[in-house]
Design brief:
This protein is of the alpha+beta class. The protein contains seven helices and 18 strands. The longest helix has 15 residues. The structure holds pyridoxal-5'-phosphate (PLP) and 2-OXO-4-methylpentanoic acid.
């Protein structure tokens, strides 16, 4: 199979239409058959729920070419499960998990020529999403939905790749206690745009959110969870007391890699902002971000600097990143059954 003629190494995190998207509609109380489409637009009523009351949920995962030429993706059934819980929270009919995984497989296989080659540092980003398309003028759930998958080849989420980034504590909150922070709904991202722009205007890469209830504990950024390494080399993973952090699949995978493969002690607990300065390493994790080191977190009082202000990833996060990406790319054997094969080595559909 011939690959697209793209400069894979220089790709950023941006959209370009590929050959096929996947579409499936929910009407009259049931999901339809679903199919691939070459039409990368969606035509819906101006009164569709999505435009007014924001019934939208989405997922993000990546497909890779492995060292031995297979096309795989990572833990798609976890994305399927999270989308069910996101949809349920927004009163949308869940797209069945097995159908989700099958749709991902079919869409990635059909776009195999767009999956970046091994070693390019790029991946095919897979973005399943669901919107309310029924006409709703009064505030109530839609009666019709579209499930879609778009794919697009991407490079690193942050321009510098694994170069440590700088965060600023946001004056704004991301997620209300027991609100929608733990589900992947577009509405959580709309309200993060202003703090994100503010952070950028001040020269930072991202905004870090504190818990909205007390503004005492660290939560996450607009698009990734936080992970920390303490002075004893233990992995510390911030928890929310108010269910307002997105349950990152990358974070849950890192926890298992740390404890089961690297023999690290892992502590999951609420982490007070006041204790952040005691940690040796800090990072963001997520599908798009993978693991990105954080150099500093700033607020009005000054800067908290990690890993001695080095412009390299720290030793523990470096090992975690290497191991996780090694499993994803097939250079490290996957002891967990996380890697989901889509095409065998000759590029044909499995
Ligand atoms: N937190 C937020 C707010 C996100 O948008 C994402 C991205 O999906 C993550 C965390 C990381 O989650 P995952 O590792 O499942 O991609
Ligand atoms: C992902 O990591 O897949 C996400 O959805 C985060 C998004 C902000 C790019």
């Amino acid at each position: 199979m011939e690959k697209q003629d793209l400069d894979w190494e220089t790709l950023g995190f941006a959209y370009q239409p590929c050959s096929y998207s996947y579409t499936c509609r929910y009407e009259d109380g049931a999901w339809g058959e679903g199919s691939l489409t070459t039409d990368h637009t969606i035509r819906v009523s101006e009164c569709a729920n999505i435009f007014h009351y924001c019934q939208e949920v989405f997922e993000g995962l990546k497909a890779y070419t492995t060292e031995d030429g297979r096309i795989v993706c990572f833990r798609p059934e976890e994305n399927a499960a999270r989308m069910v819980s996101s949809a349920t929270r927004l009163v949308m009919p869940p797209f069945p998990k097995e159908r989700f995984v099958e749709a991902v497989r079919e869409t990635v296989a059909a776009n195999a020529s767009w999956v970046p080659p091994f070693g390019s540092g790029a991946a095919l980003y897979v973005r399943p999403f669901m919107i309310g398309i029924g006409e709703t003028l009064g505030v109530r759930p839609s009666d019709a939905y579209e499930f879609r998958i778009l794919v697009t080849p991407v490079g690193p989420y942050f321009k510098g790749g694994v170069t440590p980034i700088r965060l600023v504590v946001s004056d704004y909150d991301r997620a209300a206690p027991h609100g929608t922070g733990a589900v992947k709904a577009g509405l959580n991202y709309a309200m993060s745009l202003w703090p994100y722009e503010m952070a950028h205007a001040q020269g930072f890469d991202e905004a870090l959110y504190l818990d909205a209830a007390t503004r005492t504990y660290i939560e996450e950024t607009g698009g990734a969870n936080m992970i920390l390494v303490d002075a004893e080399g233990r992995l510390v993973v911030p928890q929310s007391k108010t269910d307002s952090i997105l349950p990152s699949i990358t974070r849950r995978s890192i926890i298992r890699v740390a404890s089961e493969l690297l023999g690290l002690e892992v502590i999951e607990r609420p982490v007070a902002y006041a204790e952040l300065g005691e940690f040796a390493e800090c990072g963001l994790c997520g599908t798009a971000a993978v693991i990105v080191p954080v150099m500093s977190v700033s607020d009005y009082e000054g800067d908290i600097v990690f890993n001695g202000g080095s412009d390299e990833i720290g030793p523990v996060l470096g090992r975690l990143r290497e191991t996780l990406t090694g499993i994803q790319g097939g250079s490290i054997e996957d002891p967990f059954g996380w890697v989901f094969e889509i095409c065998p080595a000759d590029g044909e559909e499995a």
